[in-house]
Amino acid sequence: MEVALHTFSDWQLDRLRDAIHAFKYFHCDSFGDRIKQSWKDVSAAIEEYTGVLVRGERLRTFTEGENKKSGNPKYTVLQPESLDAVYRFVTDDDIALLSEGELIECMPAEQAPLQLMEYLAVKDAQPSGITSALLDGRYSTTQLTDEFIVKEVTLQNPTKNGLLQVVERELFFSAEASEDFENWTPNKKIDECFYRMKYSGWGILTPEANLLFFLKDDNTGKNRYYITLASDLSSLPDVPPELLVLLKRENHEFETFAGPDQTLQKITDNIQQMTMNNTFLFTRMTERVVIPEDAKDK
After folding, report:
1. CA–CA separation, 76 and 66 (whole Å)
2. Spatial contact of 119 and 43, defined as CB atoms under 8 Å apart
3. Residues 64-76: pLDDT tens digits?
4. Which end of the chain has less neighbouring CB within 10 Å, N or C?
5. How far is residue 65's CA from residue 211's CA, in Å, rounded to a whole number?
6. Rounded to whole angstroms, how far apart are CA atoms 85 and 73?
């Protein structure tokens, strides 16, 4: 792949910066111990792999920028030869911080969850027999607030090492819909859905058989996280789970519970209530509520 400075868009440059940042601060030796490195060390590593010297200070200002106090860091523009060296270094098979595909298509990068899974791996652990392939499928739950919300989570494209693609759709109906929703025809459900939200991202099956989801709102880019509190995920072969109990987290909420006049018991009660409100029992679906692409988004 031929690379020149003008071929990189802003998001591609951001990915190169993230990769260099990860190498400096999180690179480990063959024993898994983190290596403390200076920018001079990073420069030497790039020169060793590419034969091109990119000075450490230039790398620092390219990666971290300057004038951070203003809130808008100014990044150094590298010469084409230096930028090419950075690209070749982070995509080298031995370094493997970034793949070519991650610089071709602006999509959630696989490298980050893969590296998290590598970090979570337990050496010499006995295989649990639980694989992400068992999770493949769709799961749903409902929530009644001022509106009736149908939440659908799709787990797909599982890998052998426990990575899954995750899509969550929230379909919004009037509160009255909760009474007869299960008896509605598919067309009736489509007609009554007045807006929806969609989140996309990744799921990780940890060595302890916990699930972690990292999602982003497709419209706003806001983050949403889930972690399993319980499931009927079994180590028996070919037995997929039917139930996933997931705790949802979005915005930090503690400060709303811990005012100056709140007692410890009141704070505890509020946190317990918040946890209950954000805990959802998802069940495996046999059919899906299909909503056309032109349905209104929230």
Report:
1. 8
2. no
3. 888 766 566 788 8
4. N
5. 36
6. 23
